[in-house]
Structure formats: C-alpha cells, structure tokens
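Chapter summary example.
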Amino acid sequence: MDRKSQAKELELQAKEVKTQELKTTLIQTELDLANAVLVIQEKEAELAQLKVKTPPIKSSPPITFALTDNDADNLEGLPDTPTNAGFGTKFPSNPQRGDIFLRVDMLPNKLFKWNGQKWIEIAKSTTDRYAYEEEYILYLLEKIRTKEYSMDDLSPTERDQVIGRLNYQEKSKL
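The structure predicted for these 174 residues follows.
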C-alpha cells in the first residue's frame, strides 16, 4: 500500500472510531435519560403519597381580620356612643369599642378596629371614616409634598379629600 492509501485508510479508521464513540455516548445519554425519567416518576409517586397522607395546614394570622362588614361594624346591643377615627404609628392607649385606627408606619397603611379586647385588622373598603379627619388629610398632603407618597398610593376617598383640600386652599388665596 502506498502512503496515500494508508493515509486514507487511517482517516477512515479515525472516522469510524469517532462514529463508534458518538454512538456509545448517545447510548449512554439515552440510558441516563431513561434513568432520570424513572427517578422523576418515583418522586412523583412519593409526592402523591405524601399529599394523600398529609392534611392541609391551616395558618392563623397574627392579627384577626374582620371578614365581613358585620364583623367590623355591627355593634348591636351597645349604646350609641361616638367612636373615634385616628391615625399614627402607635395604637391609642385607651380605645373605646368601635374606634378605628389607621397605622401609617407601614405601606400600604393598615386599618384596625378595636373590638373591646384587641385591635383587629379590617379592610379599608369597609369604611372610609378615617379619610374625613382633617388632621389625616393634612398629614397626607405633607407626605405628598415631600414625595413620600404619590396620589396613586391613596384610596379614591383619600384622593378626593386631598384634592378637595387643595381646591379649598387655592380658593382661599383668591
């Protein structure tokens, strides 16, 4: 055999070796993939068994949340005594049953109501009484002026009250 023929023969053998290596790698990859599928199926079966055996966990919130308007505002059987609406970073020390308080040290602000024993969180949508307190509207105006709040941070009622206050201030300048 001449040198050219030997070179071609070696080239063909090299290609065949590469082809065999690729086939071996492909077979090994297919085996690994099949094993991975089996492991996944086993884990899914284990997970299904755990779901059957494990009852759902019920969490209890740290603050009782008033679920309905009745929870928040129904004070049947109590004398008609005025209640207070306030705001701040600390709850009032001497609340009366029915008082509401808006915590402004958290964003979004959270509304609470005193039920006679503890402060319960209520949805801001259950009442907007706090938004009519002049001191609170002045507080919001200051927060907006210092860019700590934007109008988008306010509820529709808060926004209306702030705009009304700004309009009043503009008219009083005339």
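To summarize the output: Strands lie at 85-88, 100-103, 110-114, 119-122.
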